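User: Can you fold this complex?
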Amino acid sequence: MRRLRGTLAPYLLSLPSWVYLAIFFVIPLGSMLGLALATGDPLDGYVPAANFSEFAQAFSQYQAEFVRSFIYGTVATIITLAIAYPVAYWIAFHGGRNKSTYLFLLVLPFFVTFVIRVLAWEFILCDQGFVLGPLKRLGLIPPSAHILSTQWAVIGGLVYNSLAYYVMPLYVALEKIDRRVVRAAGDLFATPAVTFIRVIIPLSAPGIFAGFLLVFVTNVGDFVNADILGGTGTTMIGNVIQDSFFVNQDYPLAACLSSMLMFLLMVAIFLYARVFGTDTIQDYAA
Amino acid sequence: MTKMSPPDEQRLAFLRGLTQPRISRGDFMRGAAASLAAMALGQAGAADAATVTDWHAWWAAQKPTKEFVFANWPLYIDVSSNGKDHPSLDAFTKQTGIAVTYDEVIQDDPSFYAKVAPVLKSGQPTGYDMMVITDGWYLTELLLQKFLVPLWRAKVPNFDKNASPSVKNPPYDPGNKHTMVWQSGLTGIGYNPKLTKREINSFEDLWDPAFAGHIGMFSDTNELGSVGMLKLGINPTTSTPADWTKAASVLREQKDKKLVRQYYDQSYINALENGDIWITMAWSGDIYQANSKGFKDLKFVVPKEGCSIWHDNMCIPVGAKNPLSALAWMNYYYTADVAGMIEDYVNYICPVPAAKDYILNVIKDPDVANSPLVFPPESELARTHEFRAFKNYAEYKKWVDIFSPIVQG
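Assistant: Here's the predicted assembly.
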C-alpha cells in the first residue's frame, strides 16, 4: 500500500498542472481547431463542419503575409541578438557591483505599457519630428523622406520591444560561465578574440538558443508594431488575424490562420532545434 | 553552478515566452473570449431576442420609469467647465425627473458590438436603454437580428418637427423605424496647404503622384470603397458589385504606385497634425477640432465629386428596462435648445438645423454657429452620399472580400 502510494504520489502531485494544462491549453486549442473547420456567418452563427478547404484557401490568400512575418521575425531576432549580446556581455563581465542596477535600467522602460512605448516611437520618428525635422531643414535628406510606414520601422519596433527579453537569458548564461575557464584559455595562449569565439560563445549557447525562441515566437505573431509603425506593404499575419476576428467577424478564417501560424512556428522551432539543437548545447555545457 | 540542466532551462524560458503577459495581448484575448462566447451562443439565443411580435402591445404595456442608461462615445456630449457634469443631461433630469446614467463606453463599433451581441443573442438585457451606433454593417447586423426596439414615433413629435431632411428616412433604416441620428459627419479630404503647396478640390488629388508616400486613406472598407467610387463618379448608395470591383481596381492602383502612406483608423488625424501625411481622407469634425486645438493650417474640403455622409444613431436595444425614458430623451434632444447646447461642444453635424440660431443668439458662439462644417448649407448637404446599406450578410461579405485585401497585404 505504502509502495503504491509512493508510485502514485508524483502523479497526484502533478495533477493540478495537468488539469491546468487541459483547461487552459488543450481545450482552447481544440476549440480553435474546431472553429477553423466551421462554416456559417456571424448572423446565423457558425456551425461545426469539416471545411478543410478553408486552410488551403486561407494559405493561398495570405501567403505573402506569412512569408513577411517570418522574414521580419527572423531579421528582427538576429538584429536583437547582435545588440543584446554586447549588452549582456558587458553587464555580466564588466558590470561589477552595479550589475543589478544595470539590469534594472534595462527593464525600466517596460514599466510603461507596450502600446504607449510603440506610440512614443511613432512620435519620435514622425516626418517633421525632432529626428527627421532638423535633418530636413538642413537639407541633408529630401523633404519627403520618411522612416515610419517602412518595413524598417516595423523591424526596428520589434527589435526595441524584444531587447530585454533577449538580454535576460544571455545575461544568465554569461553570468554562469566559470571565470577560471576564461583565464585558462588565456594561459593557453588564446588571444581575447579566440577566447571569445571558442570559449565564451559556446558556453553562452544556451542563452542564445533560449532567447532566440523567446523573441522569435513573439515577433512573428506580433501585430502592434506593424499596425502603428508600418505602412501599406508591411501587414503581418497577426494584423490579418486581428482584422478577421474583430472587424470582419470571420472567426473561422481567424482560427484557421492562427492554427497555421502555430503549426509553422512549431516546424520552424523544430528545424532550428535540430540544427542548433539541444545535444550540441549539452556538449558545450557539460 | 546551477542545478538546472540547460534543456530544462530552455524549456522554461520558452514557456515564459509563450505565456508572457502583454497589455495588448491581454486585451486581445479578452476581446477574443467575448467574441467566442458570442459565437457559441449564436444559434441558441437568436430566437429569444425576437420573441416580441406585437410591438404596439409591448409599448402599451411599458410603464414610465425614473431612470435612463445611455451608452455613448467619449467626448460626444456637452461638458460643464468643471469637466464632470453634462448640463444637457442635468436639465433633462430637472425637467422630467428621470435620472440619467451616462456611460462613455463605445470606443468603436466593432468592439462595442462584440460586447453587446453575445448578451443580446442570449436574450438578456444589455443594461443600456440607449446606445449610439454608426450606420454600417454593425447597425445593419443589429437590425437584421431584430435587436433594436421599433420606436414609438408618436412619443417623439419633435423629430418630425425639427429634424434636418438629411437625417430623415435614411437608406439603412427606412422611415426611421428604429433609429434617430445623434450626430452626422462628412468624409471628405483633409489637407495641409503648406505641405501640399496647392489647394485641393477633387478626390483625384488623392491619386496625385506629387504627394506619393504622404497620402492617407481609411482602413474602414465602407469609407475606402465609397471614395473609390466617388472618384469614378459612381454613387456609392446605389452601387452594384460591378461598381465595387471598378473602385477596388483604382484603389489597388493607388496602393501599388506607393501613393498611400498608410490605411488609418482614427490615428490619421495625428499623422496629419505631425505632417506625416499631407492630404488624407478625413472626417469633418476632426479637422474642426484640430483647428481649434491650434493646428490652424489644416483644411477640410468637400471635393467637387461630393462626399460620404455618416450618421451615429440613437437606438434602443431589446431588453431595455426604461424604453419610455429613452423616447423622452430623443424627444428632448430634438429641440433647438438642447441640440444647440450639445452641438456647441461636439462640433460634428447637428441634426437640428434650428440649433444654429440658438448657438448664435443664446450661447453667442458665432464660430460654431457659422461653421459650414457644423451647419453645412443645404447646397453642401445635397452633394453628400449615404453609404451603401447592405441587405444581407452575403452582400457585406462580397464587399469585404473586394476591399479588405487592399487594406491588408
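Chain B has two domains: 60-184+311-377, 186-309+393-407. Residues 256 and 406 of chain B are 10 Å apart (CA to CA).
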